[in-house]
Write a structure and sequence with these properties.
This protein has 272 residues and is an alpha/beta fold. Among the domains are: 64 residues, Roll (Ubiquitin-like (UB roll)); 119 residues, Rossmann fold. The protein is built from seven helices and twelve strands. Helix 3 packs across helix 4. The N terminus is likely disordered.
């Protein structure tokens, strides 16, 4: 069998296969700037700007929230702005140590988390403290300002005296009455004791001249109040009513040579 025709058929078959399966090769080529029309470039630039303007408020909001969260965590959750000092202002009858102990604020506690009102209430439980205010002084100081009670009388008790303010609160106990502080003699001194309130009301009604002669206010009963004056003189006051009238009458009668003046009824005065 002649090989010639066979080769011819093979060649023809290969040529047909080549025509049926052409090989394509692709190549990406970057277009130059001039290839995009100017109007298209302007449109794309404006689109990018619109997207950026739309996203900007969200970016700003997220940034603000993140910064605020970081600041809040730093101030509230760390000791970076913790209590380094407790400064006490206005304390004389109590010591700064007593005020700090009553405040009960832990060292390095976050300053922003200190309950100012609760701290002031705790300090206010100290007997000599009439009121207290608490404030923050950044970055690390707590300032406690106290207003102390003003003594108006001393009540003899045992071997010493109890010092009371104008409301009858006992806030100090001393061995003896301070100079210039009058005595009020009652059995149970206190703000809720009627005898204490009556004695202090009489004391508050006294004029300067009568007050200068006063040694003590003796409250034997609500209607049996007596002023003990210098030179063993007495003024029977009766009850605590009509204090200014009784004070004026008793003051007018001080020059009289009398050991006892009765002003319990200031319209009808007796003395002996």
């Amino acid at each position: 069998m002649s090989p010639g025709p066979a080769r011819g058929r093979t060649s023809g078959q290969d040529g047909g296969a080549a025509r049926r399966s052409p090989v394509r090769r692709w190549q990406l080529v970057r277009a130059g700037a001039d290839a995009v029309p100017p109007s298209t470039r302007r449109f794309m630039a404006r689109a990018r700007q619109r997207r950026m303007r739309a996203a900007l408020p969200w970016v700003v909001a997220v940034s603000v929230v993140a910064v605020a969260g970081l600041v809040a965590w730093t101030v509230l959750g760390t000791g970076l702005f913790g209590v380094r000092e407790v400064r006490v202002v206005g304390a004389r009858l109590v010591t700064a140590v007593e005020v700090r102990d009553a405040a009960a604020v832990a060292d390095d506690a976050p300053l922003a988390r200190v309950d100012l009102a609760a701290t002031a209430r705790r300090v206010g439980t100290l007997p000599p403290v009439a009121s207290a205010t608490v404030a923050r002084d950044w970055p690390g100081t707590l300032v406690i300002r106290v207003v102390e009670r003003v003594p108006v009388a001393a009540v003899p008790q045992g071997d010493g005296v109890a010092v009371v303010d104008a409301t009858g609160v006992v806030f100090q106990r001393l061995d003896r009455a301070p100079d210039g502080l009058p005595l009020v003699r009652v059995a149970r001194p206190g703000p809720d004791d009627p005898g204490t309130r009556a004695g202090l009301a009489v004391l508050a009604a006294l004029g300067p001249k009568l007050r200068a002669e006063l040694v003590a206010v003796d409250v034997a009963g609500l209607a049996r109040i007596t002023l003990l004056l210098r030179g063993d003189r007495t003024v029977f006051w009766g009850d605590a009513s009509r204090g200014p009238d009784k004070s004026a009458v008793a003051t007018a009668l001080l020059p009289r040579d009398a050991d006892r003046i009765d002003v319990s009824a200031p319209d009808v005065v007796t003395f002996q």
